[in-house]
Design a protein that fits this description.
Number of strands: 11
CATH superfamily of the largest domain: Metalloproteases ("zincins"), catalytic domain
Number of helices: 7
Structural class: alpha/beta
Largest sheet: 4 strands, mixed
Order of helices and strands: HEEEEHHEEEEHEEEHHH
Distance between the termini: 101 Å
Oligomer: single chain
CATH class of the largest domain: Alpha Beta
Number of domains: 2
Strand order of the largest sheet: 1-2-4-3
Shape: globular
Length: about 270
Amino acid sequence: MLRGFIQQAFDWVTGSQALPNQPRERIIVPKKPTLDRRQIAPQDQRHIVLQGQPIAYQFERSKRRTIGFIVGNHGLLVRAPRWTTIAEVESAIQEKSHWIVKKLHEVHERQIHSVKAAIVWADGASLDYLGQPLQLQLGAMLTTIDPDQGRLWIALPPSASEAQIQDAAQSAIQRAALLLFETRLNHYAPLLGVHWTALKLTHARGRWGSAKSDGTIRLNWRLMHYRLPVIDYVVVHELSHLRHMNHSPRFWDTVESILPDYAKLKKELRPR
């Protein structure tokens, strides 16, 4: 009996037995979590090849019922229902590949444009004119463009405001654009066997020209920043629409018949 009492006292001291009136501690071993094969991280970085280009995209599971696509400054975001398989998601991406690649390209071009240094409309500032730098020079008697000297002479005093200088410079370039565009239209129209009826200048960013079936041609005056072969591409492009009011293979064959290297010229165009 004494030995039993001593053993019980020893157990209380060492903690190998619960104290009187105290429940024993239960040690609970957590079960190993099971993996749901349909689950992935809330936002997952994935890759896919669209139209021969490797494209990275963010993937999210959501409560939506259909697969959705968002193209923004951070690239492509794809959202899909929780039960949709990755194979189904990537099949849907492939079906939208043309739209996705086009939108990603537009975002990329806007980003490139946004980081370009803006023109400082002041005496001595420089801008592109027919692919060459053109320096603004205030204090002239007349506002004229001298491409040989690389000067845009502006009939304003050095104290003129930035808005006044910009307006005078752009007006001079627009006047030059009307003359040049008319000359190029008259050059290429007979080669294409078409007749244009009117020329109008536009300033919409990202759209370089348009053509109507009545022969009206609209061209963006900002084309004057580019070298002449690029301008000719846009002129030929719009005149070709007077034969084919679409972008069918026959249309592109018409463009190529005049400008065999039109694809390279087209790539030079950037929003300005």
